[in-house]
Amino acid sequence: MANAIVPAKMQQVRSDRHFFSSSDDNAMMKQIQATHAPDGREFDVKPLLHIIEDIMHRAGPTIPSIVHPSIVHHANQAQLDALDDKAHQGGFSDILELLAYTINRISCEISCKCSGGGDAHATTVSLFNSLSNYSWDAKVVIALAAFGVNYGEFWLVAQLYPTDPLAKSVAFLKQLPDILERAEFLKPKFEALTNLIKAMLDVTKCIVEFKELPSQYITPDTPAMLTVTAHIPTAVYWTIRSIVACASQIMNLIGLGHEYIASTTEAWELSSLAHKVSNIHSHLRQQLALCYQHIDEKSHIEAYQTLGRLFETPHIDNMKILRALIYAKEDQLPLFDGGPTKKRTSIDVLRRKNVLLFISDLDLAPEELAMLEQMFTESRQQPSRPESQYEVVWLPVVDKTTPWDELKQKQFETVQASMPWYSVHHPSLLEPAVIKYIKEVWRFNKKPLLVVLDPQGRVVNPNALHMMWIWGSLAFPFTSLREEALWKLEETWRIELLADTIDPSIFTWISERKFICLYGGEDIEWIRKFTNSAQAVARAAKIQLEMLYVGRSNPREKVRRNNATIQAERLSHVLPDLTLIWFFWVRLESMWHSKVQHGRSIENDPIMQEIMTMLTFDGSDRGWAVISLGSSEMAKAKGETFLQTMTEYDLWKDKIEDEGFLSALNGYLHELHTPHHCNRLILPGTTGSIPERVVCAECGRPMERFIMYRCCTD
Fold first, then answer.
1. At what angle do helices 2-21 and 120-130 cross, to 10 degrees?
2. What CA–CA distance (Å, rounded) separates 481 from 460?
3. Domain boundaries in the chain?
4. How many helices and strands in the chain, by DSSP H and E?
5. d(CA 233, CA 170)
């Protein structure tokens, strides 16, 4: 009797081949579309799909001789437990109550129609007719659940019959012992069956995922959704067609004898179906990726706009703002405390405090970090002072288009560990909308920012880093009003403002009424000539002169070598730490940006003119020098002019007695000055806002604007 059935099965295989090679898919899909008459009911089939996954993972060949371990898609116990939890969570009982009868009816239909041969397409169409009132996602999940009942029962008996008497009796009726004795012959079939079931599950999960896309962010007329809507009926057809093929395999193992078991034709058919269904899955995944891209764009725009509105709305404290900036679920500790505890902490530690958001990428200049850390640590030494009442939080902005690898993780952890303040536990906690806001509204572009939020979460300064570099914690509460007030206190260009605390000796020299000479540049020959000439003039004029070398901005190896030479030859004092040289120049740049932010220029602000002069000195390739006495008197010039003035001391020394040393020096410098000049002002293009018009500090004419790219390796 078994032999009589085999030709019918061979006929089914030939018929299936015909459908694989047929190009008339349109006619076939018209036939399927004609069966589709949904009644409008919507089902949440996700809990049912979890049950199906659980069955497919727990069922299946477990005998090594039947299938290679790499093919069996058994989950480990943790995965199975997770699936079990999903399968039995809320919603499953409700959906099962609604669909249990339909599932069992379809299961019976599959068993009957796949047992006695027949045309696979006709069986598939019959199932579509039985499922005509359901949506496409419900059709495929119900059909897969119905197959799961049959598949699960088959393997339940196969797995239990060696140990369970009831299972053993049922197994004998299904001839399972005979089947398993021929395990080697079954290996290709079960490998193909396992692969096809996996492909069917993948496509089904994909279809359900499409159904669950949030309608507020993606509409049916979106191009990707239109494409998917057109292809889902085809995906459902081939998944149910594959269900029919798998069910036929299981049903025909029972009672078909050695001839069927030995045949490899069915394995080829299942493999071909698996290939087709896998291709369908790949196409759906591509479309799903496009849909998620569209959803992300829409949701990011919405989140960005919400963040903007949040900053415009008054609040009683800063919690809403900080939670919007730093992704914080109730069960999360989004901050890392860089203080003594070195532990993760809640965002509540920042409630109603002045918060300085330190925004940067991972490539922080060590000098910058060192100076900021020093200022922060000093402010914590007297915590009761008003200017110590603030917290700093590092927001690391990273490029999310590049993969986050172990190297970046280590770099992040190294930077985070060096900070004594709070930081975001991980860069991924900053949502794309927040990064967009930081870049577009706060104009972050690689150069660090220090955005100041008051206790109510209002932005009181979009970048207080300039204030921090100029005045340190004295700039508290770091508002724009405080910045303006501090500039009003700095009425004149003084050596204290220029040099600040880069060397404690400066304040001693001022109190002792010594002449102070700050000089810079990289030309060591000029440095030798200038320092020797200046010291010779000081001896001749009988004045006390202290000289300090401040290098140039972005100090590198050449400045380090100059420091060593100056010390070895005892030419002058130096700043032994290059961080202090960097700080001297970054303060000047910060003064320039601070003044620009407040609408100042050399036409309306004398201090701005002095800042511009110093920055153009640094922009030249040669040296420069400034000599001051006390707090305010000052003479300055470019290197060659100053050197000439010193070497020609005899030409102006007679004026010293009447005018004083600095006045006589200034007078001769002015005599040597010529209208011809070529001044360069070099500013980091990513720091703050660069004005369209900048005038020359020397002649007042508008300076030409160039873009410069520099790579300095010394």
1. 80
2. 9
3. 35-61+90-165+174-296, 318-476, 490-703
4. 28, 12
5. 38
The domain defined by 318-476 folds into Glutaredoxin (3.40.30)
Determine the Cα–Cα distance for residues 135 and 44; give it in Å rounded to an integer.
Answer: 11
Question: What is the per-residue pLDDT for 419?
Answer: 93
Q: CB of 69 within 8 A of CB of 165?
A: no
CA angle 392, 317, 381 (to 5 degrees): 30
Please answer whether residues 277 and 200 qualify as being in contact, where contact means their C-beta atoms are separated by less than 8 angstroms.
Answer: yes
Helix (H) or strand (E) holding 362: none
| Residue 144 CB burial class (10 angstroms; 0-12, 13-18, ≥19) | buried
Look-up: residue for tokens 């193909």? Answer: 192
pLDDT in tens, 542-583: 999 999 999 888 778 888 999 999 999 999 999 988 889 888
Mean pLDDT, consecutive 10-residue segments, the chain of 714 residues?
39 41 68 89 87 85 46 47 54 71 89 79 91 91 92 84 85 74 73 90 93 88 88 93 89 62 70 92 92 90 92 92 82 86 91 93 89 87 77 92 90 93 92 92 90 94 90 86 86 80 86 90 91 93 92 84 92 90 89 83 79 81 84 81 91 88 89 60 52 53 52 48
Q: Is 711 left (phi over 0), alpha (psi -120 to 50) or beta?
A: beta
The one-character DSSP state at 695 is B
Position 622: which residue type?
R
The angle at the Cα of 55, spanning 49 to 60, to the nearest 5 degrees, equals: 135
Given the structure tokens 């292809």, which residue do they identify? Answer: 231
Residues 6+ apart with CB under 8 A from 619: 679, 680, 681, 682
Give the span between the Cα atoms of 258 and 154, in whole angstroms.
19
What sign does the dihedral 554-556-559-563 (CA atoms) show?
A: positive
Contacts with 548 (C-beta within 8 Å, 6 or more apart), sequence order = 503, 505, 506, 516, 517, 518, 519, 572, 573, 574, 575
- Phi and psi angles of residue 648, each rounded to the nearest 5 degrees, phi first: -100, 30
- Order of all β-strands in the sheet with 515-520: 573-574, 545-549, 515-520, 624-629, 633-638
Q: What is the model's pLDDT at position 319? A: 92
Nearest C-alpha neighbor of 120 from the set 17, 271, 253, 3: 17
Pairing of strands 545-549, 515-520: parallel
Nearest CA to 55 out of 168, 154, 169, 189 is that of: 154
CB distance 151 to 246 below 8 Å: yes
Closest CA to 190 of 157, 154, 163, 224: 154
Distance, in Å, from the CA atom of 303 to the CA atom of 626, rounded to the nearest integer, reads 52
